[in-house]
Each structure stands twice: as structure tokens, then as C-alpha cells.
Design a protein that fits this description.
The structure holds 2 protein chains of 2 kinds. By secondary structure, chain A is α+β, with helices and mostly antiparallel strands. Chain A is built from 15 helices and 18 strands. In chain A, the strands form 8 sheets. Chain A has a 3-stranded antiparallel sheet. In chain A, strands 15-16-17 form a 3-stranded antiparallel sheet. Chain A has a two-stranded antiparallel ribbon with strand order 1-2. In chain A, helix 4 runs antiparallel to helix 8, helix 4 runs antiparallel to helix 12 and helix 6 packs across helix 8. By secondary structure, chain B is an alpha/beta fold. Helices cover about 30% and strands about 20% of the residues of chain B. Chain B has 6 helices and 7 strands. The chains are: A alpha+beta, B alpha/beta. At the A-B interface, helix 2, helix 4 and helix 8 of A face strand 3, helix 2 and helix 3 of B.
Amino acid sequence: MGIQTPNGFNLDNSGKRIVVDPVTRIEGHMRVEVNVDADNVIRNAVSTGTMWRGIEVILKNRDPRDAWAFTERICGVCTGTHALTSVRAVENALGITIPENANSIRNLMQLALQVHDHVVHFYHLHALDWVDVVSALSADPRATSTLAQSISSWPLSSPGYFKDLQTRLKKFVESGQLGPFKNGYWGSKAYKLPPEANLMAVAHYLEALDFQKEIVKIHTVFGGKNPHPNWLVGGVPCPINVDGTGAVGAINMERLNLISSIIDQLIQFNEQVYLPDVAAIGSFYKDWLYGGGLSGQSVLSYGDVPEHANDYSDKSLKLPRGAIINGNLSEVFPVDHANPNEIQEFVVHSWYKYPDETKGLHPWDGITEPNYVLGANAKGTKTAIEQLDEGGKYSWIKAPRWKGHAMEVGPLARWVVGYAQNKAEFKDPVDKFLKDLNLPTSALFSTLGRTAARALESVWAGRQMRYFQDKLIANIKAGDSSTANVDKWKPESWPKEAKGVGFTEAPRGALAHWIKIKDTKIDNYQCVVPTTWNGSPRDPKGNIGAFEASLLNTPMVNPEQPLEILRTIHSFDPCLACSTHVMSPDGQELAKIKVR
Amino acid sequence: MPTSSQDNRILVLGIGNILWADEGFGVRTVEEFHRRYDVPDNVTILDGGTQGLYLVNYLEEADRLIVFDAIDYGLAPGQLKLVRDDEVPRFTGAKKMSLHQTGFQEVISAADLLGRCPKHLVLIGCQPLDLEDWGGPLTAPVRGQIAPAIDLACQILAEWGGEVRPRREPLPASERLLGNDIDHLNYEMRPA
């Protein structure tokens, strides 16, 4: 029997149930269960993930100025973004402003992370959903070279280059160990690229691994070290001394020149490798436009990359801010993080307890009290679930909603908001990308569209880095070398009680931290992360979240090889690294979350 | 023994998530190693956290690698195990022996594919007792293995021509590997 959700999706769980656990090539652990009909089309989807149990447990009574260092450890991938969000939350609570240079440097660090994450995500976590590595072994290196040169002026494209690469790959595969290429459904009919396109993509897979070495130098220069760069409430921790030659940690012209050259390289990689690859791959998957889910309907972007220091207005934010609901792109709503009626988290289907679970809680008043109980129709036991019951509690992820609406967040959401606002820098590249592939605008709302938006955003971010680097240098040359404001550094200068919110656009979507400070210590601290939005379970009204919505109506070539599910889930760049898993010698997961 | 530091670059790496009790073993051990010892120029000490694939470029720049990590070899909690070279799993097989293996194994494997994997690998692992205590301290049996794990690393380093010396002056707080209240001592002094 089918049911219709309030947000307009038809669910039918009468067909065969397929369990994918774990979903591979993501950070952390998640599980997906779907029901398929007689034609192997997905008619019901249930996504569940593990998530932390509230950073407030760890941060309570700590110094707010140190919170960034803790939040940087929540996740190995989003380190800098969490730190930036944290210092913004504290600054918002205490009314601390930052200098213009600090704003430019923070933007450079955030944009560098954006490019880094997008490139690594595409090549190392997502490309293998489109690219058949084993097929690359049968490619003709000469034809691969012709293909590569027809789509880009990137210099690494000779027949000899691809021949060498293919030999290396052959040796690697023949060693009997696929290494990073394990868990692929090689040979599946769901792969559509010719061998040459596969070989080209594998070459770029390796080049991307090399390329990231340069990007992280930006964090080393501005953050003092990497991984885990330093951050500072009130600005950035690196002093500027343009004439200095050896001052430890200080930014001088030599370092600024190094950053300029890295920015040039990443712009080139984005424009000559990443975007052409996505377009080339997309051209073979034009008839595979599934996976849109909520993207054509309800999307949310907090916005980020302020043009002016301390100005978080819609006008100042270069990554757009706003909410679109019910598919009405002609109206973009403002978003207010401080309004208790806008962003709320629900737990009726999550393994937590609220005093009244029909209602949501705004993060300032958020609580995280575990309650691990399975629904009445679940199969298996608490330590070995065979099948979840989506009618009961079924995920460690809470269900955040904006004014009651389930929302998709991430690069596609940001670009849909920018497109709807008619901003040329977002609209034109989308239109060009689709036109080149001879696809209509509606094709944007798909798995392919999500993947394309990420590539377009990487290109955009590279150019913005050039802009902020030039702005930083011009400002320094004009005589301003200030990078930190310490006026309110001392806790004696703070009010007895304060609360604030900091937000960013993490690579994978909207991220915000809400903080309450009491007697100079942290009283409450809540993070709502992008994967909480996208991976959320159902809410009290039955609205489904972005992952679940995106899987519906997708036909599977072979349910035993759930490539289509991986492809669409990966397109969100999910991150559930915030938790831990013990693997037993036979690869089974031993530990389930213990309820505290 | 190699004499030139040119082809004897050594990376001492700790990995894990300090927020999950014994998961923090690798990071806490490398933190303590750094606090105690001065290392020669050819030795790099790195707190890798849970960075996964992002660590591949650090591996590429090393000829030899020592990794501290929590492992699951089905041993008694707090038992140490040292694994060398080919025994360090490079590929995800049936056995998953380091808790970051799906992540870190791919890092080693990716470095391999690039043809730039360190020539010598040593994994110094510790069997955890508790990985589920969110925000909790290292458990006593695991904490007790930090010093022996460091001693093992020092022996290996001596073999490799990367002899370390105890610091003459205590390391100032500002130069610790982890600061801002997440150093081992302050992290575990949980404010009431």
C-alpha cells in the first residue's frame, strides 16, 4: 500500500527490501534500506546514520575561546569549517568584530577547503560511481589522448602519458589488490563510459591526489600548521609583516606570493581538469537524470564568504543565502538563525528523547538525550538489526526542519538559490553547462546536477580566492596590517550571559553552531551539520529528508549491485565521521552505540 | 644504516579521534612523544587526527613511517602490538586490524598507487577497552601503554638512524602539539 508524504512523495514499502550497509566511500557510517517494485524501481527509502551525541557534553563549562579546537576534532574532513563556525558563534555572542584582513584570510581558508573537499570528493569518493576502473585497462592510450585533448588544454594528455598510467594501473590491479578501487561493481551495465573516458578519469584521479598537496599549504601559511590549523576568536592568529624575512609564523611577501601561485594552479586544475571531466562524464549519463529528490522543491543555504568583515547580510555574502520551498523558485525567503520558529530539530524518528516529541527544539534550547529503541516492526535485535522499522525510531541523526520543511543543503542548494536570485555568476555557468550537454534547466535537479554544481562551485571558489588574495594584498599595501581584534579578549569584559550563532557553508552544506555563555563559560553548545539536514529521518508529520527523497523512483539495473544508490547518496558528499566503529577481524561491525 | 638524511625522511604519525576515549590513543601517544623528545631534522612528528585521504601527501614525503593507532587484533585491552612492513595491511582485506583502517589503509594504498609509499612501515597499535565513551578519557590500561609505545618507537628510530634525545628544557605550553585546552591533561580535566 502506498502513502503520500506531506512533502509530496509516494512511498510504497510492499516490494522487496534491499539493505546497503555500510554505504562505502563516505566518511563515517550510514545504512540505506529501500523497497523496490517488480521492475526494480525504488519505491521507498530509509536512510539511517550514526552521529555524535552532542558536543555540549564535552564543551560545557569550557572557555568559549577554545571551543573551535574541540569542534575541529568532530570530523576529520570538515576541521577548518567547524573551527570557523565556532569562532563566528563566539564573536556573535560577545559582539566581537574582526579586522578586514582577517575576513579576507578566513575567506581564503574557507574557499581553499571548499576546493580541496570538492576535488577530493569528486575524484576519490564519487567518480568511481560513474567510472569503471577495470574498463580503463582495455582503453587505447592514443584514443584516450585524442579524447583528452578534445575537451581540454590540460598538458598531461599525450598517448605516452596514458600508456604509462595504464601500465601502472595494470600492475596494481594484477597484484590482486584493488586498493582504493575496492568495493566497485566493475563491469556493471550501470556504467556507461567508454574505456578511454574511464582511463582519462583514472589519470585525473591520481593527479588530484597530487594536487591536494599544494592546496593544504594555504592552511599551513595562514593557520600556522596543517592538519588542524589554528584559529582565533577576534581574527586570525597569523600576524602580517610584509617586510619580514624570517619571522616565524608571520605573513610576508614571500608567503603571499606562494599563495598566489597556488591559487593560479588550483584555478587551472578546476577549469582544465575537474569541470571538463564532469562535463565529459555527464555527456554519457544524460539519460540518467534521477536523484533530484528535494533539490527542485525545498533547498536551504545559509550563505557564506562575506565581502565585508562583520557584515553577514544577504548583500555582503558572496555565497547566496535563502530558502526556497514547494518548488517555487520565484520566491527566496530570508533565513534567521536566531528565530526560534525557523530552524528546529525533531526526534520522533531519531534515537533521542524529548519531553514532547511532537514538537521541535530550536538549537539554543537543544538537548541530546539518547533513547535507543527499535520500532515494533523492526527485524533482528538491537545489536544486529536486520531491517529497520521506519514507523518507529530508526536513526541517530535528528531531523532538522526550516519552518517545518525538510530541506536539501549543499552545493546544489546554494546554486539553486543563486540561480533563483538571478545572480549571473551562478545562473550563467549553470545555463552554459546544461546547454553544452543539450539538457533542459530541469536536468539540474538530479544526481548529475548535484555533481555538476559542486564542480561549478569549485571553479567559482578558485576565482573568489584570487579576488580575496588581491584584496588582502591591496589592503596590506595601503598600510593595514591588522589581523586580530583583542578588545574583548579578556572574559572580564564579557556580559554575565550571552548567546550567539555562527554559520558557514561547509563544502557539503549549511553548517551552524549555537552557543550560550554564562559566567564566562560555555553553558550550551549545539551544532547542526549539513549531513543532519540531508540525512535526516522522517519528522512527526511524515516528511522525508533529502537522502530518502533522492532515491525514490530510481530504477536499478541489478538490486544485488546497488550502484545507483551509492551514486546518488555520494552526490551529497555525506559525512558521518563524527562517530566511531570497531571492526572485528571478519569485517563485521562489533560495537553499536552505547547509550549513556 | 642510512647516512644521508636526504633519503631517510621519517614520519612519526598519530591517528585517531580524541573525542572518543581510547580512539585517541594514537594522537595522545604522538603528543606525548613530542613533549618528551627532541628529534633530528629528518624526523617529522604529525598529529593526523582523523584526516584520512588528506594524509597521503605526508606519506609521500617520507621514506619511513611509524604510525600510532588503536587496533583491533582481538587482544586483551591495553595490549600493544607492533607490525612491520608487509604485515601492515595496505589493502582492505577480510581482516580489519586498525580502527582507521578503511580510512588509513586507503591512504597507504593511494601512496602505493602513486608509487610513493614509504619503503618501511611500522604500526604500533594498542587494543582499546572503550571506544564508546563520548568525551571520556583514555582508559587506564590504554593510558598505561603510551610510555611503552613511545619506547618501541624510539628503538625503531634508533635502528633507522633517527635517534631522538630527551628534551633538555620542558616543552613550553605554546609549542605543544595540541593546545587550546585539548591537550591530554586539560582535555581530561573535565570541568564540573
